[in-house]
């Protein structure tokens, strides 16, 4: 009997899924990975908090069960429906006291985290354990796969369930998308979490006098994955460990780096209906039309002789965008143009906006994020700048490559795994796909920018690098197979 005759039942626990709710790349991953897993013998369901976007976006949900008041929520209902477009089954936790808030799902209007985030995401983890326990009479997972700190406490609740029952019933996988976001709370909140007191220690979820939801995932999950092989190595030591290096090294034998993929149906210049004209590596005429359309849309001069750079990013310290701010004058002086879209730290928003005012026709800035415009920027630009201080995986460099927009990246994390520098040797061997700089400083960044200008002048070589990047395989197929193999490895009773 083949393993596909009895599909693995996998519950993904997360806080956002595109297109209903997206604040970053996590939503793209949780949208694309489950459908890919179904092709590898997995029956996937999702569990999310009942943020307004989910409540409104899931048509005709069914009531699974009503739960007693918990974690400050007077009414809790577990609802079941289907994700639009993909049809992936999803549970959402209807708890208005905790989740029915306008604006950002994590932060209040003043930009500060909600005071009860420890309870809001404790409920998410607790509900995951209840599904393991059998609260949906018709479906019980073989594997629970949690994403980032928001799901980290699920593994503590599952472990507590195992201690109470004396048996192990489910395999668990925790994926760390970014070590810098840890879900740390004051130790006194532990009394509100309904967990065994023995878990509040260094060999548990205590972290320098705090409760750490991220550490819970590291400590109690069967396997831990990160979103690129290089990042899996980086987080074991130094700055990238974010203080958790000892715990990570302790779990090194259970740590796996699996590169994120992208949704190649949504991000495909051959079929993308959001861009001016379609194109592919054998016919790039459409990209020229997209470039012209972008220049018109962003009120840039219609020049052809120099590259159009772009930034599509959160404005956060991690992203290294101060290097772009420092380098904007040089890009403009060399004849380049730049399109910037994103939001975040106020000083970066102000700096980019000021440059747009100072250099009309050369610099264009849009504060905020627009998915449709992102597609048009990738299609119409020549180089995408990603100078991240660290980058667990990154997705925009893959989008750039697929759209013939050469990534210029700091060689860290997933950027190192997905971009090959246009060095002389790599150009000769036809391996180059973009530009990489080694040292996180302006000199190294600017040197890479200069090399981008130089290669753009050699259009024959530029097109070779373009076409090489567009041929790369960034779909989820390979990564989904690796996850499915990992699930089978830890399935209880396998």
UniProtKB/TrEMBL annotation:
Reaction catalysis annotation: [(1->4)-alpha-D-glucosyl](n) + ADP-alpha-D-glucose = [(1->4)-alpha-D-glucosyl](n+1) + ADP + H(+)
A GO term, aspect molecular function: alpha-1,4-glucan glucosyltransferase (ADP-glucose donor) activity
Domain Starch synthase catalytic, residue spans: 9-249
Highest rank taxon of the organism: Bacteria
Glycosyl transferase family domain ranges (all copies): 301-464
Pathway of action: Glycan biosynthesis; glycogen biosynthesis
Gene3D superfamilies recorded: Glycogen Phosphorylase B
CDD domains: GT5_Glycogen_synthase_DULL1-like (cd03791)
InterPro entries, A to Z: Glyco_trans_1, GS/SS, Starch_synth_cat_dom
Keywords attached to this entry: Glycogen biosynthesis, Glycosyltransferase, Transferase
Enzyme Commission (EC) number: 2.4.1.21
Binding sites annotated in the UniProt record for ADP-alpha-D-glucose: 22
UniProt entry tagged with the keyword Glycosyltransferase: yes
Cleavable signal peptide: none
Family: Belongs to the glycosyltransferase 1 family. Bacterial/plant glycogen synthase subfamily.
Known function: Synthesizes alpha-1,4-glucan chains using ADP-glucose.
UniProt-recorded name of the protein: Glycogen synthase
Organism in which the protein naturally occurs: Oxalobacter aliiformigenes
Gene name of the encoded protein: glgA
